[in-house]
Write a structure and sequence with these properties.
The protein has 385 residues and is of the alpha+beta class. Among the domains are: 159 residues, Probable tRNA modification gtpase trme, domain 1 (Gyrase A, domain 2), CATH 3.30.1360; 76 residues, Aminomethyltransferase beta-barrel domains (Elongation Factor Tu (Ef-tu), domain 3), CATH 2.40.30. It has 10 helices and 20 strands. It has a 6-stranded mixed sheet with strand order 11-12-13-10-4-14, sandwiched between helices. Strands 15-18-17-16-19-20 form a 6-stranded antiparallel barrel. It has a 5-stranded antiparallel sheet with strand order 6-7-8-5-9, with helices on one face. A hairpin with a 2-residue loop joins β19 and β20. α3 packs across α9. It is globular, with a radius of gyration of 21 Å. 46% of the residues are buried.
Length: 385
């Protein structure tokens, strides 16, 4: 099958095309890679604000009296302990402890959650959740095809959004904490049946290392919201593509499924051991395997662990490049780039645990030439609050 035969379009595809976006296939979707300069888009998010179409992501509603208990079983975290209006980052693993996907779950009420998997894994996660729901009083509904997701990210994100919400909801937006969500109304101008006002699920979450929001709406309302946000942001807000989203998340030390996370890996080697709730009294899928991995010292005393590497020169390592010490391969790069914000190369890599102490000097084999790097604490970049 050809790429065009399998690629889908989001409800905002025409908006991107009008603005001259360059498209790429990602997870079976035609998504904007960049509009003009990925470097300019990256800096805009760090200094002002950027607007992203993330409608390729999945949205799965889990409802019913057993919703919390079910997600405790289906995921590695303890979702039943999350407060109403809060969110939790978690993993869905297979019985061997391999990572099927990393995802965010929003607890709307005690019997209603929204689970958001990555684009390429959305159908797999929806199917896994449905299969795991047997014996629980829950309904699993995949709403991905009907839902759009727009991310407004950057230090100016709050100020921009406040121009579009009713005055009585301004304090709600200002007071929304990180990894929390709420229902708000947004004035998006004409073209809508209700006179320009739409109901939005607003979450203070993101994948850039900056303050910002993710807004969930039905597909039919996405173009109006996208246009209204761009108008409200003026020259300081730019539409941004997946290229700069990748460099932003790398600087923030955030893992990407398919690079840092995979079915062949495990949470402990990826540095995500703390989110595995072995303290849960109830069973969950992959528990036995993950208990064994932790007991074996995976990512701590045995195997490899994900670390940050800072380049001492100007050349960047890329995915799958070998990490070496004295000419011997002791790891592999999963993501790497010249950091636009910091001005030096950064990389995420799995490295043999005995060489993961911050300050350890290693090399990345750049096509036959050893380029010096050192192990550093993550994240590479952390915004000022």
């Amino acid at each position: 099958m050809t790429e065009t035969a399998v690629s889908r379009h989001t409800a905002l595809y025409d908006e991107h095309a009008k603005r001259g976006a360059s498209f790429t296939d990602f997870g079976g979707w035609q998504m904007p890679l960049k509009y003009s300069s990925e470097l300019a888009e990256h800096h805009a998010v760090r200094k002002a604000a950027g607007l992203f179409d993330l409608s390729h992501m999945g949205e799965i509603n889990v409802t019913g009296p057993d919703a919390g208990a079910f997600l405790d079983f289906a995921l590695v975290g303890k979702l039943s302990a999350v407060a109403d209006g809060k969110a939790k980052y978690s993993l869905i693993c297979n019985t061997d402890g391999g990572i099927i996907d990393d995802l965010i779950s929003y607890r709307r009420t005690s019997d209603s959650y929204l689970v958001v998997p990555n684009a390429g894994n959305a159908e797999v996660v929806a199917r896994e959740l449905a299969e795991r729901s047997g014996g629980f009083d829950v309904v699993v509904q995949d709403q991905s095809a009907a839902t759009s997701l727009i991310a407004l990210q950057g230090p100016d994100a709050e100020a921009i959004l406040l121009t579009l919400v009713p005055a009585e909801q301004a304090d709600t937006v200002r007071g929304l904490k990180y990894y929390a969500s709420t229902d708000i109304q947004v004035h998006a101008g004409g073209g809508l049946a209700d006179g320009g006002t739409m109901d939005v699920l607003l979450a203070r979450t993101g994948y850039t290392g900056e303050d910002g929001f993710e807004l969930y709406i039905p597909n039919a309302q996405a173009p109006a919201l996208w246009t209204a946000l761009l108008a409200a942001g003026g020259e300081g807000l730019v539409p941004a593509g997946l290229a700069c989203r990748d460099s932003l998340r790398l600087e923030a030390g955030m893992p990407l499924y398919g690079n840092e996370l995979s079915m062949d890996g495990d949470p402990y080697s990826a540095g995500l051991g703390p989110i595995v709730a072995l303290s849960k009294k109830s069973d969950f899928v992959g528990r036995q395997a993950l208990e064994a991995k932790k007991a074996s010292g995976a990512g701590k005393t045995t195997g490899r662990r994900l670390v940050g590497l800072q380049g001492m020169g100007r050349r960047a390592g890329r995915s799958h490049y070998p990490v070496t010490l004295d000419g011997n391969v002791i790891g592999e790069v999963t993501s790497g780039a010249l950091s636009p914000t910091l001005g030096y190369p950064v990389a995420l890599a799995y490295v043999d645990v005995e060489h993961t102490v911050p300050g350890t000097e290693l090399s990345i084999d750049l096509r036959g030439k050893a380029e010096p790097f050192k192990v550093v604490d993550l994240p590479f970049y952390k915004r000022e609050k």
